[in-house]
């Protein structure tokens, strides 16, 4: 009869579920073995066996109690499977995506930048928040011995509030969001940070000044740039008055002043005294630029082409630093 046929199919479905759960348990065990014992993922994976056991018991119970609840257990299984796939994606990220886009500083015996690759998306920000569109991440551009693999990250939903910053011992710890130090500056403003020589340089406010924090001792230093103006920020972003950059030639701060009529000024920073030892005024108005950076002593400036594209439109004619 039709009823008997339906029962046989339901019986078969429950048996398939038990087989899937056994395979699922085997996959969890394999994934568990593939991670290092110190990996934070081990703790996540340890949650799966009890859930699998509970689902197996539920399958047996539902089969004997009410065959119409088959869809309920299938939904639960799908949710558990999705969690496991997320763990697998984390593993794949660690094994496939390597930090190859952070290259060692090379020599400057060339004619400047020839091309720029497309950006490589690593993962959503470390705060797992789509509203955190401001912040910084990267490596120390002049690391102390033993800290060559260290990464830093700090995210925020605004440019005007202090945020927390995390330090990660290496790329894997960055991906797993497993930091070894977390700190807050409290007086930072803007979206312009750099780590150089085991110190973070940033824009402090009240008053506007350069800030420097030693990443070991967290000791703070400040220096006011008297001519730097709060009237001139990059286009499409507020509060970007002091912008920091580093290259093969040293550490730099980029800003504009009333005296320069809003044109970009590049200052080379003396790291020992947190002072500007030389300045160069350019012909580019800061409000027309979206960003600027240094490479081999040359200033490069970007501007917006459309909603999704910027272009480098201004390499400083002649090197800022030889």
TrEMBL record:
Main location: secreted
Subcellular location: Secreted
GO cellular component: extracellular space
Annotated gene: LOC115407199
Designated name of the protein: Olfactomedin-like domain-containing protein
Keyword terms: Coiled coil, Secreted
Record-annotated Olfactomedin-like domain positions: 107-322
Coiled-coil residue spans: 70-97
Gene Ontology biological-process entries: signal transduction
InterPro entries: Olfac-like_dom (IPR003112), Olfactomedin-like_domain (IPR050605)
Source superkingdom: Eukaryota
A Pfam entry, by short name: OLF
Native species: Salarias fasciatus (Jewelled blenny)
